[in-house]
Amino acid sequence: MGMDNKLFHGKTLAILSGGGDTPAINSSIEAVRNRASILGYKVYGIRQGWKGLLGDGQVIDLTCQPYNGLYGGTALNSSRTNPFSSKEGENRVEQILRNLERYGIDVLVTIGGDDTNGAAKKLYETEGIPVIGFPKTIDNDLRTRTMHRYGNQEIEAVVCPGFPSAARTVARLTSMLRTTTESHNRVMVMEVMGRDAGWLTATAAHGGADMVLVPECPMTRERKEFFFERVKELYMRNRKRCLMIAVSEGVRWHDEKTGKADVVYASSETDEYGHARLGGVSGVIAHEITARLGLDARAQVSGYYARSGECREYDRRLTSTLGDKVVDLLLRKAYGQMPVLKNVVPYNELEEFNTSSIDMGSIGNIPLPDAYYDKNLFHITDAYRDFLGMVMEPMHIMEFDYDFPVVLPKA
Ligand code: F6P
């Protein structure tokens, strides 16, 4: 078939990525670019999220360019620019409309979380811009209406591109930290990103964390008492006298001075969507463990490592599968929609028939479900283990189970 006969010949599709990066964005861009090209679209990339459609615009041609989807992050760059925030009276929506016209863009695919895709949906509804969303976040808190069947439970779960790769990294970092923690008989408190949701932090259990603290469970004064008892018990029970605790950056931790359980901020500055930067709760917890229990405790912030590195196998297959669904949405002109997985399945079962799409207006945030977290044990449940077993590759955790005989002095 000649170029001119292709369905969307003469049309242009542009892709942008907004919000925090993930290891799977380039893979998503490549998947959408390849499929849109087959349909006949010219494919553009918008630089730095919505920012690339402001002012004179920053647009590049991706049509026949080599693209490495295995490489993490986003080659289009990203920003947290909000089209609806207007600094000094500027009208960003007008600038976006003008640039879409100037560059001849017919359809926009927005790779993002609820901020980026929420803004895209609003632009579709208020200005009639044809948009298709594409999910993305390491936090895994974007509602995708993906069902997880576990025994006789039907759990509303989330599988967002970026999360499986980030989860693998968090689990791996946890297993690595164990050797230094054991060597010094310490309590290690590892802080993990994820904002107000504990999906990512809880993956540390897959890497051997003994306890997990998630934002869904505020650490009130009472819960803190219970937590310290459990830390002591688990530490003493461990033959190697050490303990690994994973804590979400967004955990609310009771402060004796204020009498309230609140998050710890790294900075009070907020981005254009109103989010302040979280960070530092692991240091507070480690300090209190030493003060209360006399145990040698340290804090380690895993931070941006979770977002870094290459796209892993599950994400690779997931972005391709969701890319196939984008083709369906484009053919049906089903704008204002976002492709999602219907059911949680292992990567070798990812097929287009297991996808559907949801209205971008109903995405929102979804916390770690109760079915995945055991509040009494401060640990994940078997249901979450089952979920992780499907979206993460099996991990080999090296162990050295020593128990040397003690030598007594001769006399
Ligand atoms: O939303 C993704 C995320 O990585 C959060 O887990 C984290 O709190 C935030 O982004 C950090 O954002 P920034 O890159 O702006 O520091």
Summarize the structure in words.
With 411 residues, this protein is an alpha/beta fold. 29% of the residues lie in helices and 20% in strands. It is built from eight helices and 19 strands. The chain has a five-stranded mixed β-sheet with strand order 3-2-1-4-5, with helices on both faces. The protein has a four-stranded parallel β-sheet with strand order 9-10-8-15. Helix 1 (25-38) runs parallel beside helix 7 (313-331). 6-O-phosphono-beta-D-fructofuranose binds at residues 20, 137-139, 193-195, 249, 277-278, 307. The site of 6-O-phosphono-beta-D-fructofuranose has 11 residues, from strand 14.
Multimerization state: single chain
Q: How many helices?
A: 8
Portion in beta strands: 15-25%
The gross shape turns out to be elongated
For the biggest β-sheet, the strand order reads 3-2-1-4-5
Low-confidence stretches: none
Counted beta strands: 19
| Cα radius of gyration in angstroms | 23 Å
Mean pLDDT rating = 96
- Give the proportion of residues in helices: 25-40%
> Helices and strands, in N-to-C order?
EHEEHEHEEEHEEHEEEEEHEHEEEEH
N- to C-terminal separation? 93 Å
**Main structural class:** alpha/beta
Largest beta-sheet characterization: 5 strands, mixed
Provide the list of bound ligands, each named once: 6-O-phosphono-beta-D-fructofuranose
